[in-house]
Amino acid sequence: MVHKMLEGKVAEGNQQKMVSREVFLKVNGLLDENSHGYTMNEENVEIPLKRFVKCGHCGQPLRGYIVKKKNTYYYKCNTKACGNNKNAEVLNSRFANILEVFKIDHAKDFLTLLKKQMVATFNQLSSGKHEDLQEIQKLHKEITSKINRLEQRYIEEEIGGELYGKYKSKYDLERDEIERKLMMLSSQVSNLEKCIDLAIKFATELPLKWHSGDYHTKQQLQHLLFPLGITYDKKTDECRTEEINSVFLYLAYFQQVISKKKSGIPDLCLEYSAFSGLVAPSRIELLSKV
Q1: If phi over 0 gives left and psi between -120 and 50 gives alpha, with beta otherwise, what is residue 83?
Q2: DSSP secondary structure, 184-234, as one string
Q3: What is the helix (H) or strand (E) element at residue 63, kind and residue range?
Q4: How far is CA 181 from CA 7, 128, 188, in A?
Q5: pLDDT digits (tens, 9 = 90+) for 139-160
Q6: Which of 35, 138, 147, 163 is the most buried (most CB within 10 A)?
Q7: The sheet that has 230-233: what strands, in order across it?
Q8: Cβ within 8 Å of residue 12, ≥6 positions away
Q9: How deeply is 36 buried, as exposed, middle or buried, from its count of CB atoms within 10 A (0-12, 13-18, 19+)?
Q10: What is the pLDDT of residue 14?
Q11: At 42, is the secondary structure helix, strand, or coil?
């Protein structure tokens, strides 16, 4: 059985076969080459953007294939009469250019400045969490004081065992809940610099990781950077995206601000003004004056 949901794969049933597998494949044009002279490839490092890039006309994921006579790979939309296709090498090269925008300069002074800016920015954008942390710390201090006072009154026989047990259980439950929230918020705040260090290190190696990665590695990197993928429009020969990972978006933005190379992302049709608009600079105080 062949169904579009199986993406060209053949599922064999348990019933008695009326024709052999080979005959079935030949009849359906799926053995080696189809009637159009190309072969489909499921996982091929030459076409890493397959399914990640979507058709700019109909929104369907592009598939990958090779024209054997030319030994050339292409991306193609399977929607009938759509006709959206592109040479894979050309589109791969364009995506590699996009990655260069997110590559971070290795210079130590630059990385130090970039990290300071990132920490300041995320602290600013997450100021509510710091306020929450301070409030939880205050509550923890209060409940600890109540427990200490309760134990002191019990020791001095101001209250009996029954009353002590009742309030001790109540206060312990409150303290456990407060400490759970405290641990969660403290972890989020303390891990900020570690996360930024990892993101910066990753960004310095991003193009190399993509170029040297296998099919699955490339796909993972692509979706990490662009969660909704990108679109390609053959009529305008343009690529676009609806979402960029916020961490890498900020890294790329601040690098352009600090280096004074405000180019945006041309290969995604994002001029600097539109690119910076995604970062919402009105909410961010830059450490560097440009």
Answers
A1: left
A2: HHHHHHHTHHHHHHHHHHHHHTHHHHHHHS-HHHHHHHHHHH-TT-EEEET
A3: strand 63-67
A4: 46, 14, 11
A5: 999 999 999 999 999 898 898 8
A6: 147
A7: 53-55, 230-233, 238-240
A8: 1, 21
A9: exposed
A10: 52
A11: coil
Per the CB < 8 A criterion, the answer to whether 7 and 60 are in contact is no
Dump the DSSP string for 153-170: HHHTTSS-HHHHHHHHHH
Distance CA 41, CA 35 (A): 16
Tokens read off for 26: 């030949």
* CA-CA-CA-CA torsion sign (89, 94, 98, 100): positive
- Residue 213: alpha-carbon gap to chain centroid: 17
pTM: 0.61
Contact in structure between 250 and 124 (CB atoms under 8 Å): no
What single letter denotes the amino acid at residue 102?
F
Q: What is the dihedral of CA 5, 6, 10, 11, to 10 degrees?
A: -90
| CA Rg value for the chain | 29
To the nearest whole number, what is the mean pLDDT of the chain? 78
